[in-house]
Every structure is written in C-alpha cells, then in structure tokens.
Design brief:
homodimer; Rossmann fold; 10 helices; 6-stranded parallel β-sheet; Pantoate--beta-alanine Ligase, Chain: A,domain 2; alpha/beta; globular; 3-stranded antiparallel β-sheet
C-alpha cells in the first residue's frame, strides 16, 4: 500500500494503478462502515484508493471541526489489512490552494434536511468531492447510505457535471444493538451510548408500521417523534418522511419514502435513516 | 473528422483518439480567432476536439442568446479543413440533464469587469466549461486572450478543482484594421463596423503612453476614455486599468496592468483588452 501526501505524488502513484479504480473518500477515524465501502470497492475494482482528509469547509461555525476524532496510524493499518493500493493524506493547502475561490454547489437537493440544519455543509462536501474525483481521476466512488442526502447530492452532481464516474452507495453498517456506525459515536459517554439506540428504534418502529399497512406520512413522522421523545437523554433536531428522489417532505399517503432524523445525545449530533418501499 | 451529438457517442468516439487531447470549446460561428486556437492545439496535441454549443446559462436576461449567430455547416467545413478529429454538437439536454441543479462558481475573480456588468455570466461559463472538460476528459484546453477575464477565471477554476488539465491562452486575432475578431462583429452595420476600431485605438494609445513612460493608472484610464468618447457612434460601458492577477482596479503607479473595456456600437457590445508590462 502506497501512502502519498502531495497532489504530484498522488498523480505519479496513480499512473501505476490498474483500471478500473475505485475511490473511497473518508475523513478518517475509520470504522466498519468505511471498511465495508473498501471491501465493496475491492470486489468491483482492479485497484482501490482511499483519501483521508478532514474537510474544514463542510463544518459550520460552532461545529466539531477541531474535536473531530483522528487516528492516522490506526487508519493506515486498517486500510493495509484490507488490501488498499493507494492512500492520499493531503494537507489543507493541497486541497485548497492559495487564493482558492471555486465552489461546486448543488441547489435544490441541498435545501432540506441536513442542508437546512447545516448551512454551507453540502457546498463543502460537493466541492471537496469534486476535487478528490479530479485528483484521483477515479472510475467509481463509494459512499455510505448512512449519509443518505449526501449520496443523493453526489449522484446528482456527477450526473449534472457529466463526470464519467459511477457512484456506488453501500448499506448502513450497524453496531450489534443497531446503532449506525459513525466516527462521532466516539463522543458518546456510556449512558448516551445506550440511549443512542433510540434512532434505530424510532426508524424500526415506523418501518414496522409501514410494513403493516400504515401509509400516512404524518402518522409515521409522529410515531418516530414519540419514540425519540420517550428517551430523556435524546433531543430531536428533525424527523422527516420525505420523497426519496426530491427530499421534499411527504404529505398524506406515501408509497416510497426516506425516513431520516438528526438527534442530539448531549452535544453529539447523530443521524440515521431508512428507505421505505424501495428494494 | 467525426461529428457526434450525444454524450455516449462522444465518450465512445473519444476512446479512439490519441493522447494528449486538446479541446477548443466554442459557441460556433467560427472566425480566425477560433481557428487560431485549433491550429495551436494541432501543433501541441496528438488529437484535437472542438465543442460547438451556444450555452444559454452564460447569457443574461435581455442579452443576445436568441440572436446569437449560428452556421453549423460552415463551422464543420472550417474545422474539417483544420484537421480536427472530433466535434461535439450537444443539445441543451445533453449538457443540462433534466433537474440539473449543479453550478461551479469562482467567487473573487468574477466580481469585477465582465462579471460586474453581466451578473451570472461567469457562473454559466465555469459550469459549462467544467461539463465540457468532464465530457471530453481532455488533457489541454485552448482559450482566447480576447476574453481575458474568462481565461483567468478558468485557470483559477482548474487549479482550485485540482483538474489535471493545462489551459493554453492564445493571443487575440485581429482584423486588418485592428478590430478584435468576434462572432458578435456580425451584428455591426458598415458605419458601426468602421467606428468599432475605436476600441483598438484606445488600447493602442494607452499602450503607447505606457511605452513612453506613463505609469499612472488614472491617466491611462482617462486617455482611453477620451479616445472612445471622440467616436460619436461608441458608448462606453466600462474602461479598466486593473491588476492582471486579481483584476482589482489599479490606483496610482503601475508596473503591470490589464487594460480592458466594453463598448457599445448601437446595440452591439464589444470587448477588447491589452496587457501592459507582461512579456
């Protein structure tokens, strides 16, 4: 496994790799969710690249940029074990050259849910992902369904910008009790960690209702809200039943939906989601 | 020479071309200015691609999108004569897929000069150029110094987005009397055409003063203005002496500058420029 730091080193190392190349962009502090993306890339691609970069432009003011967990030696060991070919660990200056002033923005899809709660977040994401795609000149890129809106936004961006890249979205990987894996789970104290299962419970409860015939978006939304409000350590930021293509909030009867939520456990903000009516 | 219409056809035709590929993006109605870019690409690249697409998003309200001159058969004949390998003539739907909502924006450099006079213009330019770069996966791309700010903005964008593309900027090509070649010159009636030489005269006068030792930005600006105001058919929109890197309007003594201007002849808006103090 080759680990490179500068853009020039990346371009030179990249020329030795076989096609198709699969890229897994990460912010490091890797967990089984990231590694599931790497494993999928290993199955589908002749070579696999990973980027590790905590991207400052996707963090808002007062968010956890400074506190974001980092453990590069461990990350590199895990990636080596998975048989990754190339890892890029750029500095901020590599990704945002001096006088950098170019942004990639996706307009409609970023207005709701995470985009509404985190102004500027998706502008940071789409900009850095474009840079990573251009730097790696990748054929495929792997993202987790955990960040459902991000996956949708990036698919839209790739289509709109005529990028010759296939976006592969992999299922959410969960802890044994059902908590979706996230680098931010490391912030939770033991009590919060136990309470954090409430996101999965709320989604599971709504999915069960849907399976049993409930089709009213309002009923499903209220049922999720009730489950979370039953947990004293949890504070809801939003709970959503949305059109899975446009992310517009669903009203009345639904056949397909993206259930999603953001919930605080103490100062830690967790998200989770589930698709209804989609195979 | 292969002429293709859809993105799939382009990708398939592109795979037959030798590297490096040089791209000349155009809006058609080609003149010697465009052809000079093609000739330069022919010298430097193993294959040459050209796009012909009148990009609606770079025209503002009330601008000349509908009237913009078109002559595809003639364009294709000229490109064939130059030995171009591949021409892409996309439809709007190829370049802007349904529900398209992704934009590439360069912030600082687009605030002044053309960007100030034509709000949204550069957002349209940078977005379409990104799409063309991605569609062609080109190694080099050729732009004219005639659109000096555009060339600067695209160089900035390529650097910021880590695109592995070399931007080549070619000199302005002029008619015998000095008028910069432009598809929009076709709008001029014979009287306006004669008067249009005033842009070149104003630039030449200022360049001469600079050569003779004049270094004051204000004096150079006023001298250009005076030359244009002497021509009754011409109406100045702006006259600028700017820092050639940042495009900020220069004050006091200068060593290097971009002289530029936009001038109306009747309803036709013409631009021209000249670099001072740069080899």
């Amino acid at each position: 496994m080759k680990v490179v730091l500068t853009l020039d080193e990346l371009r030179s190392a990249k020329s030795d790799l076989l096609s198709p190349l699969g890229l897994v962009p990460t912010m490091g502090f890797l967990h089984e969710g990231h590694l599931s993306l790497v494993k999928q890339a290993k199955v589908e691609c002749k070579s696999v690249g990973v980027s590790i970069f905590v991207n400052p432009t996707q963090f808002g003011e007062g968010e956890d940029l400074e506190a974001y967990p980092r453990d590069l030696p461990r990350d590199l060991r895990l990636l080596e074990e998975e048989g990754v070919d190339l890892v890029w660990v750029p500095t901020i200056e590599d990704v945002y050259p001096t006088d950098s002033q170019t942004w990639v923005v996706v307009e409609e899809l970023t207005k709701r849910l995470e985009g509404e709660q985190r102004p500027g977040h998706f502008r940071g994401v789409t900009t850095v992902v474009t840079k990573l795609f251009n730097a790696f000149q990748t054929d495929r890129a792997y993202f987790g369904q955990k960040d459902a809106q991000q996956a949708l936004v990036i698919q839209r961006m790739v289509k709109d910008l005529l990028l010759p890249i296939e976006i592969v979205v992999c299922p959410i990987v969960r802890e044994e009790d059902g908590l979706a894996m996230s680098s931010r789970n490391a912030y939770l104290n033991p009590e919060q960690r136990r309470a954090a299962i409430v996101l999965h419970h709320a989604l599971g409860d709504a999915a069960e209702r849907f399976k049993n015939g409930e089709r009213d978006a309002g009923v499903l939304r209220r049922s999720m809200l009730a489950v979370i409000q039953d947990e004293p350590l949890a504070r809801v930021q939003y709970v959503s039943v949305a059109d899975p293509d446009t992310l517009e909030e669903a009203q009345g009867e639904i056949q397909r939906a993206l259930l999603s939520m953001a919930v605080y456990l103490g100062d830690t903000r967790l998200i989770d989601n589930e698709m209804l009516g989609i195979d």
